[in-house]
Amino acid sequence: MLSIVVLISGGGSNLRALLEATADGAFPARIVAVGADTEAPGLDHAEQFGVPSFTVFPSGFPNRGDWGDELLAQIQQWSPDLVVCAGFMRILPPRVVAALSPNLINTHPALLPLFPGAHAVRDALAAGARETGVTVHIVDEGVDTGPTLVQRTVPVLPGDTEHVLQERIKTIERDLLVQTVLDIATGRTDLAAIHQSNRSATTP
């Protein structure tokens, strides 16, 4: 049984999808805790499902590194097999990434390497893209630069606003995240092997 800590910053729609999936006794993964960096509304989902939660506010620490160390300590006390950044809007410090990688994944609302960063949907519209999508990837020390696990395209339709396109992406994103976690839990996706292959490919 794969144990998971999920990190969020907002409403937690991806978290909700994972909670619903893992509530099924046949699903080979369980969420053991949910963490946040803000008073995220999505923490209500954890409470509804009886999952413990914790919040580590960056404002309570003198620097990003100290905040990251406390976040890591909170995560590690649950000894998760996998950490999922599901709408977690803060870049993790290098020490956190080093301690958790490659069992640290993120969802991003674009077809990386296109449109990295916090405004991917807005950037796709501004660029006149005809399609965008969702990427699930291993987190590294960069901004949305880690090895890609899976992608799915989403068309950009005439008249799309940022909100409309984002909501259409979210529908795909939730399903793709649940399937990715299932694939990791069943061994169909080997994070260590993908991580090592990527390192080998980028090492001179």
UniProtKB/TrEMBL annotation:
Domain Formyl transferase N-terminal residue range list: 4-181
Positions bearing the site annotation: Raises pKa of active site His: 144
Any one Gene Ontology molecular-function term assigned to this protein's record: phosphoribosylglycinamide formyltransferase activity
Keywords assigned by UniProt, alphabetized: Purine biosynthesis, Transferase
Catalytic activity: N(1)-(5-phospho-beta-D-ribosyl)glycinamide + (6R)-10-formyltetrahydrofolate = N(2)-formyl-N(1)-(5-phospho-beta-D-ribosyl)glycinamide + (6S)-5,6,7,8-tetrahydrofolate + H(+)
Gene Ontology CC terms: cytosol
Active site: 108 (proton donor)
UniProt-annotated binding residues for N(1)-(5-phospho-beta-D-ribosyl)glycinamide: 12-14
Pathway membership: Purine metabolism; IMP biosynthesis via de novo pathway; N(2)-formyl-N(1)-(5-phospho-D-ribosyl)glycinamide from N(1)-(5-phospho-D-ribosyl)glycinamide (10-formyl THF route): step 1/1
Record keyword rRNA-binding present: no
GO biological process, one term: 'de novo' IMP biosynthetic process
Binding-site positions, (6R)-10-formyltetrahydrofolate: 64, 89-92, 106
InterPro entries: Formyl_transf_N, Formyl_transf_N_sf, GART
EC number assigned by the record: 2.1.2.2
Annotated family: Belongs to the GART family.
Role according to the record: Catalyzes the transfer of a formyl group from 10-formyltetrahydrofolate to 5-phospho-ribosyl-glycinamide (GAR), producing 5-phospho-ribosyl-N-formylglycinamide (FGAR) and tetrahydrofolate.
NCBIfam families recorded: PurN
Name of the protein in question: Phosphoribosylglycinamide formyltransferase
Taxonomic path: Bacteria, Bacillati, Actinomycetota, Actinomycetes, Micrococcales
